[in-house]
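Sequence, please.
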């Protein structure tokens, strides 16, 4: 059962008092701190709705939480003493399950609220069972985000409890009941019951999740577990439950991961399955440790002979994530630290892999991730919002602006303030970035981010902008990271706007031969080969046009290397040197001498044109084309690309003599040749068949007679 908590020895006391709270306050309407007095009734909620909920404490852009308590005092000063007492008791249940808040802090705040009444309230008995240290120690970590956004949780709790108080006592008792979990019940289909929304406690969870302003509220998780600890997991943040529900061991299908009450039921079914397998109660933070964070591993670069900076995808990604508390979730370190980062480098240097590593890691951690790819025609209307063809309207634009990925993820981050969101942008500089981001460039930088606001009301935010089409205000929340990649060698890219450069960190992912295997392939040292070519490219152009190590990743034999050079390396060099094959050849081979990688033949005007052509002064030219006779490319040819003189001859002398068609990988090349030959023959046959089927032109001598001719 989920109330099995080895770390919290006093958890039984917390659960016992939570059950007593359910019976006394929620069902009976009686006060916790004033025994025998009726308190949890609609008339005592009304002043809290009017003076607190409908006059909310807005987000404060990172200001001290002292403002919350100062404003709360002013708001409660306008409420009757009974409503103030009710507020103190609501705060008690808001913080009861939290082990993040210390017992002393909980007591201090309860007494502080109690003292905010305009007329004195009776003293809370010292022996109140609700305020004993063993009761207030809590059962789980609510995370830092919960405390930072407590003002929203309090408003949600007041609304929920008022709605509950307006029900009849019999209806409240029915809604808050649940049968005990027993052996026979272990095989029950709780997921099906939750979807039906009829059986308890799933009807209560459905009601709680569908209450006003419930979206993104952690109190849903806290209250569900406090009242029904056998049914709901001891996980108090959305991110933690999303992480657990995605774990492959639980086998929860995507259709059972939303809404929240259906996912909770699926988690219970999964827990029962695992407990039947292992034969004892489990705790996901200990055994099986599905929620336990692995220790942080520091990646150290190895010292090797090639003099390039050590860099791995793991070291590039390192630093974007910070450790939370052991079983806490939400903002690390107490407040969100938004990151705007661009990975930049030449093609094949690991930029996209870095994005994919981040995507997998954060998605597996229960976080929200969205991926977009920029291209030359990408615009503000695609990214933020714009009018789009309406379904069933014959291609006509709709009347309402359609939100793009940026606005969608901003809204989701606001609505789920305890969850980190990440927007990944591939090839960010392939679009006109200034036009794509528009007015949002101003509020992208971390210092202009705002605290998440689930109400999406930015009228009081100093960092909101008004969108071009809808006219709505939008602020970028602090729990949104924007991470992008940028290709430094693409000639078609747009230059990055300087204003955007100031708002992003730039992390280089250079071409690094050390990512290639140290073992030689067919006698060829891939690391030395790539380093030599890149040195020549940097000399002839610049370092931004280096060849990425990914171009040679997966090369396991000489045929793989031949194909990589023919289909990746040489075409990229052709692009770099603007179809100047002479320069491309020089960058590849480092020599003007004939090379196996290129076919060369002279073009002499006297042999190509007759005497009538006016070509005086034109000299012969050398035609250079990449060679397609891959079988003629030997290990010796590759070795000569990075070694010279005696060193090259010594390495070549050690090579074994072998027919290229007997080498590993030759079968795949033969298959490719056969397929290409079939395509060429098929295309030629289709062209010939088309020519035969096409009727001769009307003025063709062999065709039909024209109008001026007799039949």
């Amino acid at each position: 059962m989920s109330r099995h908590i080895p770390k919290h020895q006093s958890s039984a006391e917390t659960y016992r008092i939570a059950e007593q709270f359910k019976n006394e306050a929620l069902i009976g309407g009686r006060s916790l701190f004033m025994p025998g007095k009726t308190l949890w009734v609609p008339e005592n909620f009304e002043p809290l709705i009017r003076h607190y909920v409908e006059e909310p404490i807005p987000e404060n852009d990172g200001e001290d939480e002292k403002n919350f308590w100062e404003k709360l005092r002013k708001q409660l000063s306008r409420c009757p003493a009974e409503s103030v007492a009710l507020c103190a008791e609501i705060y008690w249940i808001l913080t009861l399950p939290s082990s993040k808040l210390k017992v002393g802090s909980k007591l201090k705040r309860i007494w502080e609220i109690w003292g905010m009444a305009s007329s004195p309230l009776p003293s809370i008995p010292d022996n109140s069972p609700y305020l004993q240290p063993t009761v207030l120690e809590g059962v789980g970590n609510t995370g830092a985000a919960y405390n930072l956004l407590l003002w929203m949780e309090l408003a949600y709790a007041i609304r929920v409890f008022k709605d509950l108080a307006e029900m009849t006592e019999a209806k409240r008792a029915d809604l808050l009941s649940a049968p005990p979990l027993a052996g026979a019940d272990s095989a029950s289909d709780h997921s099906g019951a939750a979807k039906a929304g009829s059986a308890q406690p799933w009807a209560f969870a459905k009601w709680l999740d569908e209450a006003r302003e419930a979206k993104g509220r952690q109190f849903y998780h806290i209250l569900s577990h406090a009242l029904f600890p056998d049914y709901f997991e001891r996980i108090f943040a959305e991110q933690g439950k999303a992480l657990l529900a995605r774990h492959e061991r639980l086998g929860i299908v995507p259709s059972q991961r939303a809404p929240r009450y259906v996912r909770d039921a699926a988690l219970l079914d999964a827990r029962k399955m695992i407990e039947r397998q292992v034969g004892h109660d489990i705790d996901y933070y200990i055994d099986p440790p599905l929620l336990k964070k692995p220790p942080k591993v520091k990646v150290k670069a190895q010292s090797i002979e090639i003099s390039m900076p050590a860099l791995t995808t793991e070291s590039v990604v390192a630093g974007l994530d910070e450790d939370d508390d052991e079983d806490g979730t939400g903002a690390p370190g107490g407040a969100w630290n938004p990151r705007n980062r661009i990975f930049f480098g030449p093609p094949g240097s690991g930029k996209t892999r870095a994005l994919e590593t981040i995507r997998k890691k954060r998605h597996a951690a229960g976080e929200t991730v969205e991926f977009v790819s920029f291209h030359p025609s990408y615009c503000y209307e695609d990214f933020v919002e714009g009018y789009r063809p309406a379904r069933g309207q014959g291609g006509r634009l709709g009347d309402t602006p359609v939100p793009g990925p940026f606005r969608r993820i901003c809204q989701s981050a606001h609505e789920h303030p305890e969850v980190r969101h990440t927007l990944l942008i591939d090839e960010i500089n392939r679009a006109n970035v200034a036009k794509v981001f528009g007015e949002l460039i101003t509020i992208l930088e971390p210092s202009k981010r705002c605290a998440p606001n689930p109400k999406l009301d930015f009228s009081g935010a100093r960092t909101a902008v008004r969108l071009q089409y809808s006219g709505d205000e939008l602020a970028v929340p602090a729990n949104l990271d924007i991470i992008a990649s940028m290709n430094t060698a693409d000639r078609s890219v747009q230059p990055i706007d300087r204003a955007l450069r100031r708002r992003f960190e730039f992390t280089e992912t250079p071409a690094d031969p050390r990512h290639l295997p140290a073992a030689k392939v067919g006698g060829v040292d891939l690391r030395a080969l790539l380093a030599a070519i890149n040195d020549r490219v940097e000399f002839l152009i610049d370092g931004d046009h280096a060849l990425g190590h990914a171009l040679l990743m997966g090369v396991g034999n000489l045929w793989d290397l031949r194909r990589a050079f023919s289909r990746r390396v040489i075409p990229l060099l052709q692009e770099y040197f603007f179809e100047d094959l002479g320069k491309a050849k020089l960058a590849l081979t480092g020599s003007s001498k004939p090379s196996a990688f290129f076919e060369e033949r002279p073009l002499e005007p006297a042999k190509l044109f007759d005497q009538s052509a006016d070509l005086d002064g034109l000299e012969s030219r050398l035609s250079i084309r990449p060679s397609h006779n891959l079988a003629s490319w030997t290990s010796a040819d590759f070795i000569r690309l990075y070694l010279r003189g005696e060193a090259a001859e010594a390495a070549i002398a050690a090579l074994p003599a072998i027919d290229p068609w007997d080498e590993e990988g030759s079968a795949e090349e033969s298959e490719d040749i056969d397929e290409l030959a079939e395509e060429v023959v098929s295309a030629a046959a289709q062209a010939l068949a088309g020519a035969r089927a096409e009727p001769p032109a009307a003025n063709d001598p062999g065709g039909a007679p024209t109008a001026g001719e007799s039949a």
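DSSP finds 27 helices and eleven strands in the chain.
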